[in-house]
Amino acid sequence: MLEIKDLHASINGKEILKGINLTINKGEVHAIMGPNGSGKSTLASVLVGNPAYEVTKGSVTFLGQDLLSLKPEDRSHLGLFLSFQYPVEIPGVSMVNFMRTAVNEKLKYEGKEPLSASAFLRMMREKKELVQLDNKLANRAVNEGFSGGEKKRNEIFQMAMLDPKLSILDETDSGLDIDALRIVGEGVTKLRTPETSCVVITHYQRLLDYIKPDIVHVLYNGRIVKTAGPKLVLDLEKRGYDWIKEELGEL
Ligand code: ADP
Ligand code: MG
């Protein structure tokens, strides 16, 4: 699905990612954890093609294609989805219209016909139920005046509608209440299939009470310094990140 090799990336001339290696297979859920400032969000931004970051070395293959040479919108059409830590509000554009455009753009990229109005509404209804999105949210402008929990639910709804091959969920280090964590966790679990993969980036051990990752990585100072099974989450909860720095000989 995704293969990252020796990825280095900088912002404003400062190197943030210092050689990331990561392979994600079909059907897997990976968690990427790590202290603040270690480069987790940078990795997500580089993968979706945020132009603020410069890739200085390394390669990324997604579904057999050279991901880094693709435009951000083509990455999305190919099936890469990134949740936003700070979702944008789009006043005046209803969720319905926003999603209809997004879904039809993707179909066009795949060489398929756009959905008819009734087929689209049927799809909306089905996915809305799946993620328990309130009807009133679907009819409002995108994210306008949404609460934190509502934005999260909306994000999971967008994910359900776009049916991505690989979802990257970058969760903020602050401001996610228990409710929002549960919404994200349940959503990801419901949308999980043997054909799709997910990367959950989090600072919180708690989120992983709801999402059971297959593989857990610790990103520290621009590198993945530890990879293990789900038990690593418990170790981190108990011991924090300092023991990892100790192992690296930094303390
Ligand atoms: P994380 O998501 O793991 O908390 P980030 O990827 O957001 O970490 O940030 C990694 C590092 O990049 C931090 O040290 C941060 O200060 C730095 N950084 C982020 N944006 C910029 C920027 N625009 N200019 C310089 N440094 C930046
Ligand atoms: Mg971050």
Describe this structure in words.
The chain is an alpha/beta fold. The chain has a single domain, classed as P-loop containing nucleotide triphosphate hydrolases (Rossmann fold, 3-Layer(aba) Sandwich), CATH 3.40.50. It has helices at 40-48, 72-78, 95-109, 117-130, 135-138, 148-162, 178-191, 231-239, 242-247; strands at 2-11, 14-24, 29-33, 54-62, 65-66, 80-82, 90-94, 141-142, 166-170, 197-201, 215-220, 223-228. A 6-stranded mixed beta sheet has the order 6-9-10-3-11-12, sandwiched between helices. A 4-stranded antiparallel beta sheet has the order 2-1-4-5, covered by helices on one side. Bound molecules: adenosine-5'-diphosphate and magnesium ion. Magnesium ion binds at residues 40-41.
Task: Please count the helical segments.
Answer: 9
Number of strands: 12
Strand order of the largest sheet: 6-9-10-3-11-12
Provide the CATH superfamily. P-loop containing nucleotide triphosphate hydrolases
- In CATH, the topology is named Rossmann fold
String of helices and strands: EEEHEEHEEHHHEHEHEEEHH
For the record, the CATH architecture stands as 3-Layer(aba) Sandwich
Spatial separation of the terminal alpha carbons: 37 Å
Rounded mean pLDDT score: 87
- Give the uncertain stretches in residue-range form: none
Structural class per helix/strand content?
A: alpha/beta
Task: Describe the sheet with the most strands.
Answer: 6 strands, mixed
Q: What does the radius of gyration come to?
A: 18 Å
Helix content: 25-40%
How many structural domains in the coordinates? 1
The percent range for strand residues is 25-35%
Distinct small molecules: adenosine-5'-diphosphate, magnesium ion
Q: Under the CATH scheme, which class?
A: Alpha Beta
General shape? globular
